[in-house]
Amino acid sequence: MLPCVLTLAAAFAAAPAVADDPAPRVTLVSLPRATTIRAIALESPRIAAGTMSAGLGSVSPTQTSLDISQGNRLFESLYPRPLPPLRVGRQGVRPGPWRRALERATDAPAELEPGLLASTLLEAGVPVAAVGDDGNENPLMMVARDGRIARTKDCSLGRCPGVSIGAADAEELPALVAGLRERDLLIAIERPPPLGRRLAVGIAGDGFNGTLSSPTTRIDGYVLSTDIGPTILERYGLDIPAAMSGRAITSTGERDLDSLAALSERMGEISPRRHPVLGVNVIVWAAITVLASALFRRRGAAIALSALAVTIAWAPTLLLLTAALEPTVLGERLLIGIGAPLLALATLGATRRRYGERAPFAAFAVAAFVSVSATAIDVIAGSPLTSVSLIGPNPDVGVRFYGIGNELEAVIGTLLALGSGAAVAAVRPADPRRSVAIVAGVTALLAVLVFAPGRFGADVGAAITFPAGAAGVVVAALGGGRRRVLLLVAAPLVAVLALVGIDLAIGGDAHLSRSVLDAGGLDQFGEVVERRVRLGARSFGRFVDSTFYMIALAGVVAAVVFRRRIVSWFVDRPAARAGLVGGIVASVVGALANDSGALLLLVGAAYLAGFIGLAWAVRCFSSDSELG
Predict the structure, then answer these.
(1) Residues 22-255, CATH architecture
(2) Residue 497 burial (CB < 10 Å; 0-12/13-18/19+)?
(3) Is the pLDDT of residue 123 over 60?
(4) Structure pTM?
(5) Where are the domains of the chain?
(6) What average pLDDT does range 474-478 have in this prediction?
């Protein structure tokens, strides 16, 4: 009798544990195209909402689903061949197309394993199935490495064991959310358009409420397609494979649907606004400079060129302001187009009294210092403004989401060198050569500490570009001895090694330490270098039809042809000349070290041209002073 009683008691004791801790069910819901964040969130207060990056650049729906299945992604231009049609039938993808998709991933310069998510789950004993006969690409997210996926009719969406995927309307979400148990998870994703960048996404389940976020993006309300896999695996307590680049999605704060919609809208506007706001204003500023030169001759040209150089040095500061104000296209164009020149003229006027004909150098140094410092403060604070600035990392493309990004990296790298030269030239210390070498070295060191660590988001590019520019300043200022020339090569290498140490110490989770040291070692490092080189080389081809790019190339050729005349404008200004050399080195090294080299060269050329014009203007003012 006693054994029976003990057995019965044990059964009753075990029953609540089984009921309270069932195996989690994860339901992937494909929502119709054009489903908005608001539509998802309003269906249930238990859904945490946000925007999901569909891929690198504009990608097809099939590629988005494939990226989710492999937990990693790559620019389509870097794949060796186009993606074959991958329609998911009753048992999965047909062997021929799936084999070609696997070969395409294997030959790409990245660690890509289509079907890795489902295979990892199946190997751990977690069932995976598609619910219903969804004829589009959605089930591809959960296809295994062999191209197969089970179809089930034994359960409805949201009631299947393990991980299930199926299609539903937003109106069906409340019922699905209501059926969630304690450890269950529901992930609702808008079906991608033919070529998409951003998708509405919502997640419900234990631990999710408010706004979605991800360690990958560090932007509240913005996650990646490659974060879906780690999120599911974490729910089952499974290790995330090294080949997956994403991180598990979390949630934070309260749902602010207006802010989420505004963030998504702003991200979509960054690329289209760059030409009307930046490109058009640069053309207008250049036209005004030409007009002033024609009307007022030499004196007018000197004033206009000084104002132009200081204007573009102020531009990054004002772009942070417009990122905070979120004006219309016209409003942003006017704020930048009028505000930057007014700031430039005010700075020139304020410095004129103290520095006389050297005021343009002083004004440029002030503008450069404020722009770099303001960006540094914002980056340290988490990049709330830099991430949505028109010259920031442009998260909508899907490459970088916080920190400064490649374009702003080129701006800051050039401004550090030019600003150092301008500041010393304006102050005119007893030993300008040694002074500019010290100033450039210190500012580059501080900039690397702020912008390079993965915690803040610039990573390797800043660690290479900034020290290279400073080394260029030092060599130009102190002479090109063997040790100083060696500095040009050693400075970036030392900075990268220091970056690794800093990142490991502060847990910055930088791309370098995460994908190279933690994942693939030297092999992975080789793939990263190869990918950067290939992207950088292709970027030059993409810009061949750009008017700005052709003008920049023409300017580079002209600078080489007339280099002796340009050097003559820096006579008796060794600090300014050293700053120019450092700016050239930073621009060239940055273009070679980054995967958007042509764009970085274009940005650097614009600032170098402005600084050369500034030096000519200072020479002009000095001549006028000598003439009385």
Answers:
(1) 3-Layer(aba) Sandwich (3.40)
(2) exposed
(3) yes
(4) 0.84
(5) 22-255, 359-626
(6) 90
